[in-house]
Amino acid sequence: MIAPAVAIALLVSLLASVSQAWPAQPRTGAALQRRIIVGNDFGCRSKFRPVVVLHGLFATRETDLNLLETWLRLQGYCTFGLTYGAPPLLISVGGVAAIDDSAAQIRNSINEVLTKTGASKVDIVGHSEGGFQALYVAKREGLSARIGKIVALAPPTSGAAYANLVGLGDLLRPAVSVQILTSGCLGCVGLLPGSTEVASLNDGPVAQPGNDVTVIATRYDKVVTPPGTASFIQESGVYNVFVQDVCSADLTTHNGMALDPNVWNLIHNALTGDNGREFTCVPYISPV
C-alpha cells in the first residue's frame, strides 16, 4: 500500500503535469493567437444570439478560445468572453478559483452581455471546465431563463479523473484535497468525481428547461475520462456526439478540441439548431 504522504505528493506532481498540458497551446499556436486577440464588442449585432465563450481549467480566454472566437465571428456571430477564476497575481492561469466563485464571475459577465447588447438570451460555448460551468451557471446561478443553447466541449459533467490519476487520492482524499487547495487550485477539487459541485450539478436533471444542450466529446480524451461517459448527459433532448462519429479521421485530444475545425462545425450546427448537418471533415491531429 502506498503511504498517504507519498500518494499525496505523487498525485499533486501528476496533476501538475496534466495542468501543464491541459488547454495551453504549443508555442507557435500561442504566438498565432496573440496576433488575433479579440475583445468584447458590445456594439456587435448579429442575426444570432450573443455567444459567451468559456475557457478550460488552467487556461485563459486568449490561450484556449481565440481561434474558435475568430472563426465564429467570421461566421457572423458576436462573441463575448472573460478569463474567470484567475488569481490576482497570476492572471494568466484561469479557472483555478472555487467553482462557485468562478460561476459568480461568469454570471456577472453574462448579465453584462445581456444588458449592454439588449439581448434577451445568450448562447454559451464552453471547453472543459468552461463546459461544466455553462451547465452549472444555468442550473445553480439561476440563469437558465437567460440562456438559449449550451455547447459543451468535453465537459467533466461527472467529474474529471485527470487522466485517471485521481484514484491515488482515494487513499486519503481529505488530505489530498487540502494539499491541492494549498497549491492554489480550488477549481481542481471542485471538478473531482464526487465533489460537492459535481454532486450539485447532477442532483436532478442537468439540462434545465428551455436550454438546448449539445455535448461534444473525443474518443481520444485522456483528461476527462472515461471519454464520453464522463461528459455526456443522458437526458431527453440532449444531443451527445463524439467528433469521431462524424469525422473518423479526427484524432483530436481533450486539449485540441477548441482548435479543431471539425469541432467548430459541430458547434456551428448546435448554435443554429441544425445538429446532424453534414459538412466537409478534415483530418485533424491535436497539436498538444
From TrEMBL:
Transmembrane segments: none annotated. Keywords: Hydrolase, Signal. The keyword Repeat does not apply. Pfam families: Lipase_2. GO terms for molecular function: lipase activity. InterPro entries: AB_hydrolase_fold (IPR029058), Lipase_EstA/Esterase_EstB (IPR002918). GO terms for biological process: lipid catabolic process. Gene3D superfamilies: alpha/beta hydrolase (3.40.50.1820). The keyword Protease does not apply. It comes from the Eukaryota. Residues 1-21 form the signal peptide. This is Alpha/beta hydrolase fold-1. It comes from Akanthomyces lecanii RCEF 1005.
